[in-house]
Design goal:
The protein is globular. The longest helix is centred in the N-terminal third of the chain and has 18 residues. The strands form 2 sheets. It has a 7-stranded antiparallel beta sheet with strand order 1-8-9-10-6-7-2. It has one domain. Strand 6 and strand 7 form a beta hairpin. It is of the alpha+beta class and about 240 residues long. The protein contains 8 helices and 10 strands. It starts with about 20 loop residues before the first strand and ends with a strand. It is about 30% helix and about 25% strand.
């Protein structure tokens, strides 16, 4: 399969921020359309058709947050995105593809609308739990292993996460509607595949020599009605 690549990220990946590296984001800059929009969206459609069980998951009770997120994205696209045409029943994307709005299957509809993967995190007890997601482009993790689990368990294999876990939970607790936050990561990969659920067996020192740079722009925002948090992921893969 021909790799789906971008030329560069819109931020400097050579200067990573200390973990968790989260800073404020203008709401108008939340979702992005880049030069790989059409091929990435075609790959999303293929994965949703052929591997839905691997890239989309929903837990009981997530319905209100999913419904709110779908309408929130539709409203955001209408107000902020160029190249989209929104009607009551369908959306015409910048690549000319028309997507029916299926309110009975909101995460599937969302998976066809934007480049970002979208994860819903809802407060359950003391932690936010992953209650629903459309994750077509996982970077070395499997949705089936994380759905229904809280933040600390989701990040269990991440080096150094234990030390910052309380701060990350406070960030999720404190994010306010209309005031999203964002961070980025960047890692070397040997395989440019966007659907990459398995971790590559390579040490961190060797990653700098791998032929592809994979970077995620990760945003956190709060939905105003259900108060659920949304974790969005925009993925770049760049040959270097």
């Amino acid at each position: 399969m021909t790799p789906i690549l971008q030329r560069a990220t819109p931020y400097d990946t050579s200067a990573p921020r200390p973990l968790p590296g989260i800073v404020p984001l203008d709401m108008a800059d939340w979702l992005l359309v880049d030069e790989a929009f059409a091929p990435q969206m075609a790959e999303r459609a293929r994965l949703l058709a052929e591997r839905r069980g691997d890239v989309l998951a929903v837990t009981e009770g997530a319905g209100p947050a999913m419904d709110e997120l779908l309408q929130f994205v539709l409203d955001w696209l209408r107000d902020h995105a160029s190249g989209y045409e929104i009607s009551a029943r369908e959306v015409r994307r910048p690549d000319g593809v028309t997507v029916p709005i299926d309110r009975a299957d909101p995460m599937l509809t969302l998976g066809h609308l934007v480049q970002e993967d979208l994860c819903i995190m809802e407060k359950r007890g003391d932690e936010h739990v992953l209650t629903a997601a459309v994750l077509c482009f996982p970077a070395s993790w499997r949705l089936a292993d994380k759905i229904g689990r809280p933040l600390l368990a989701i990040h269990d294999p991440v080096p150094g996460y234990d030390a910052i876990a309380p701060r990350v939970q406070r960030l999720f607790d404190g994010v306010q509607p209309g005031r999203p936050l964002w961070r980025f990561n960047a890692h070397g990969y040997g395989d440019p595949a966007l659907f990459h659920p398995l971790r590559e067996s390579v040490d961190e020192a060797a990653r700098a020599r791998l032929p592809y740079l994979r970077s995620e722009r990760q945003c956190v925002l709060r939905l105003p009605e259900t108060r659920a948090c949304v974790f969005s992921i925009h993925t770049w893969v760049i040959a270097r």
